[in-house]
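Chain A, query sequence.
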Amino acid sequence: MLYDKDIREPLFEFLEELYGKVRIIEEKQMGRSRADVVMVRPQAVCGVEIKSDADTYARLKRQVQDYDKYYDYNYIVVETTHAKHVAEHVPEWWGIITVELENEKTDFYLLREPKENPKVDWKRKMTLLWRPELVHIQEKNQLPKYKEKSKAFVIEKILLKVEKEQLREQISKELFERDYNTIADTIKKYRKDKILKRLGG
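Chain A, predicted structure.
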C-alpha cells in the first residue's frame, strides 16, 4: 500500500513530464478544505487531490465543492483500489490519475483528461493571489492603485476591467514568479505602512 508521502514526489515528476512547464504549490487553503497540490500551468491553475488506499471518501464531497470554486481544472489521484469507483465520486469534468507500485517503482497513468471547470468562482480564484501580486496585475492593466481599499474591492475592480483570458495568464504568471521571501517582506512593509498611516506617522 502506498501512502500520500510515497505518492507526492513521483507525482510531481509525472506532472512535469505530462505538461512541461509547471509550478507545484503544496497544501493550499481553499475555503473549508485544503488542496493537497496546486499545479500552476502557463494558462491555468489546477487543483490536485490525492487519495491513497489508506484514505476514504468521507470528506471528498466537500473537498470537490471547494476545489471547484477555486481552480480552472481539477484532478483526483487514486490508487488502484479506488480507481474502479472514483468516477462515481467526482464530477465528469475532473481528471483521474491512477497510481500503483510496479516493481518497486511508482507508476502513474492518466485515466481521464480533465475538462475546464464550469463552476470556478473568479472572485475566489483571485484570492489565491497575495496583495502585492494583485498590485502587479493592476499595474499591468493600468488600473488605479486603490491603496486604501480592501482586497475584495480590488479584486472586484480587476474582474470588471480585465478580460478573463488575459487575467488567466496573468494569474499564472504571478504564481510562477512568486518568491515567498520577497513577497513576505513586501507584505510586512505594506502592513507596517498602513499601521503608520492610521497612527498618523
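The mean pLDDT is 88. The longest strand covers residues 33-41.
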